[in-house]
């Protein structure tokens, strides 16, 4: 354990040190939020946001419980990123904004920007919470810490790292994180499979269902794909590299490459979860599958791979926390509360809001442990993001979409999605029908409510507005 802990500590300290160095260059709000990035930086930051603790600990958890089909998490993400690159990157870039709510304002109005900013901040906090939980499992398995203590210690480290340099720090460390993630996971898989006697032993020991691509159920697979496609197009942390790329060609190329990097990763971590099932068939908590497997390997190998998991979490949690600060600062503070704010005031508020967002993630992680799987938490967030994108699509392509109707549809859809997930966590299945997931119901509600409410509450014409004022 001492060697693994030493390697993880060194990696964590190097990362924070780089963040501190980056702070010297984050002297403006543009530096803090990011601007003018090239293909490599956009790819590593974008891939890092998608390949977080959910793609390592989370997918391994599903691999331990269901087998290879858990890999659909990252495959679905890759599909979603491809759709974003091919159909929406150019449009988003043309709008000259650095936030998703800023995009929404262009088509629905400033009030929709404020509402969507608040909703998407909650979504980002849900994603950040999932990452903190994944990180805390490292502290539980490696250090033997109590879960709550692990959350507080690691969560505090994440916040300090993000506040230190913002997007500058993330861009500096993202390349290191991506290399550590892929290299560490491949190294671990080769040793883990060898330890159990090879792939043939894996096939002989596990049920045939573990090698089926549909073992988690086609309703869940299709739900994940739909949620990923819709969610990718409104994911602030994932879209931000596209919005701050040097130009539209860089943005599109980076997004396509990112999808190719993200998609296959889950296959590796699902296989690690399956290997853990062979070696440790009776784990009390499937979330511990990957960390437990790492601790059973040779100390140096285990330490490197545990560092890879930490790298995956760091590469996601920081952009997510930063995205909260960016949206609240740009979409509410600068756009509505204080348009005349100086750059230094914007930078100060960004850091304060970013820090508060991180603290909220830590607090919720303390409350949520054991109540749901990490991937379920993530896909609830994807569903809400996707529902907002459905409303945005109506605004782009249906001229009768009204501001009041769209805002009401956003709020109603979010409420329905929350009720659906809460019901499942209490009763173990979704309302109405077990296969009617939160993704399906949220998309349906978003479509119906946008149309109906836009017709009931149409935008006022210029003549009606003038009469109202008189």
UniProtKB/TrEMBL annotation:
UniProt KW keywords: Membrane, Transmembrane, Transmembrane helix, Transport
GO cellular component, one term: plasma membrane
Membrane topology: Multi-pass membrane protein
Location in or out of the cell: Membrane
One Gene Ontology MF term: transmembrane transporter activity
PROSITE patterns xrefs: NA_SOLUT_SYMP_3
InterPro entries reported in the protein's UniProt record: Na/Glc_symporter_sf, Na/solute_symporter, Sodium:Solute_Symporter
The UniProt record lists the keyword DNA repair: no
Major localization class: membrane
Residue intervals passing through the bilayer: 6-22, 34-51, 71-93, 114-143, 149-172, 179-201, 221-244, 256-280, 300-328, 349-371, 377-398, 405-423, 439-457
Gene3D superfamilies (UniProt xref): Sodium/glucose cotransporter (1.20.1730.10)
The family this protein is said to belong to: Belongs to the sodium:solute symporter (SSF) (TC 2.A.21) family.
Name of protein: Solute:Na+ symporter, SSS family
Organism per entry: Anaerovirgula multivorans
Organism classification: Bacteria, Bacillati, Bacillota, Clostridia, Peptostreptococcales
């Amino acid at each position: 354990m001492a060697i693994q802990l030493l390697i993880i500590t060194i990696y964590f300290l190097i990362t924070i040190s780089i963040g501190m160095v980056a702070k010297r260059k984050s002297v403006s709000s543009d530096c803090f939020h990011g601007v003018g990035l090239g293909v490599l930086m956009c790819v590593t930051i974008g891939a890092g946001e998608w390949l977080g603790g959910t793609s390592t600990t989370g997918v391994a958890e599903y691999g331990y419980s269901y087998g290879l089909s858990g890999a659909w998490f990252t495959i679905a993400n890759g599909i979603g990123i491809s759709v974003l690159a091919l159909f929406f990157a150019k449009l988003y870039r043309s709008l000259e904004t650095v936030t998703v709510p800023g995009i929404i304002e262009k088509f629905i109005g400033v009030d929709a920007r404020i509402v969507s900013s608040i909703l998407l901040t909650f979504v980002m906090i849900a994603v950040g919470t999932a990452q903190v939980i994944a990180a805390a499992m490292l502290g539980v398995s490696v250090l033997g810490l109590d879960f709550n203590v692990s959350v507080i210690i690691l969560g505090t480290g994440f916040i300090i790292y993000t506040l230190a340099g913002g997007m500058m720090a993330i861009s500096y460390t993202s390349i290191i994180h991506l290399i550590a993630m892929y290299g560490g996971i491949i190294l671990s898989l080769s040793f883990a499979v060898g330890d159990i006697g090879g792939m043939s032993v894996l096939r002989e020991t596990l049920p045939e269902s573990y090698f089926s691509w549909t073992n988690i159920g086609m309703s869940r697979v299709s739900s994940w794909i739909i949620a990923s496609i819709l969610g990718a197009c409104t994911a602030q942390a994932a879209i931000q590299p596209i919005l701050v790329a040097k130009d539209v060609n860089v943005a599109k190329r980076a997004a396509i490459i990112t999808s190719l990097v993200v998609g296959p990763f889950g296959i590796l971590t699902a296989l690690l979860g399956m290997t853990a099932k062979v070696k440790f068939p009776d784990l009390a908590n499937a979330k511990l599958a990957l960390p437990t497997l790492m601790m059973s390997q040779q100390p140096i190998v285990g330490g490197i791979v545990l560092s890879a998991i930490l790298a995956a979490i760091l590469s996601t949690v920081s952009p997510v926390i930063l995205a909260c600060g960016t949206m609240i600062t740009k979409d509410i503070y600068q756009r509505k509360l204080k348009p005349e704010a100086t750059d230094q005031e914007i930078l100060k508020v960004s850091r304060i809001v970013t820090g508060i967002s991180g603290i909220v993630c830590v607090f919720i992680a303390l409350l949520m442990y054991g109540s749901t799987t990490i991937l379920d938490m993530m896909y609830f967030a994807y569903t809400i993001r996707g529902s907002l994108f459905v409303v945005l699509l109506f605004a782009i392509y249906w001229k009768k979409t009204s501001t009041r109707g769209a805002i009401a549809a956003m709020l109603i859809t979010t409420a329905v999605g929350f009720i659906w997930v809460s019901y499942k966590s209490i009763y173990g299945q979704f309302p109405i029908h077990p296969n009617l997931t939160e993704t399906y119901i949220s998309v349906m509600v978003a479509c119906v409510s946008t149309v109906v409410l836009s017709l009931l509450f149409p935008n006022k014409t210029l003549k009606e507005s003038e009469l109202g004022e008189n």
